[in-house]
Amino acid sequence: MYIFNTTYHIESDIKEIFIAWLREVYIPTAMHRDELSEPQLCRVIAEEDTGGDNFSLQFHVADPNRLETWYDETGADLDNAIREKFGDRVLGFNTLLEIID
Q: CB–CB of 67/35 below 8 Å?
């Protein structure tokens, strides 16, 4: 089992709008297919001032091939939707984590 993590850096003045959009649009769309499960949204605690807010959105995925299928068929469109709606006010990067225990 793996965790597909996306960490977002968000300008503070759009934080609530972005979180609402994740809950109302991104997560339901991502879950429409069966590749991803167990969504979890977390605030990243940073000791230094990053000039905004940081959040992590995580999903469980059975294996990297299923993630690749999801990304090709759904994820790329969601990434484009974020860029179209929020521009450079939201920046994100993906990490795939393998669950050990």
A: yes
Q: Domain range spanning residue 25?
A: 2-9+19-53+63-98
Strands (E) across 1-101 are located at 2-10, 36-43, 53-61, 90-98
Average pLDDT, the chain: 95
Bridge-partner residues for 95, per DSSP?
A: 5
Confidence of residue 33 (pLDDT cuts 50, 70, 90): confident
Residue 14 belongs to a domain: no
Residue 77 lies in a domain: yes
CA dihedral 57, 60, 65, 71 (to 10 degrees): -30
Closest to 96 (Cα-Cα) out of 54, 55, 67: 67
pLDDT single digits (tens) 9-23 = 999 999 999 999 999
pLDDT of residue 72: 96
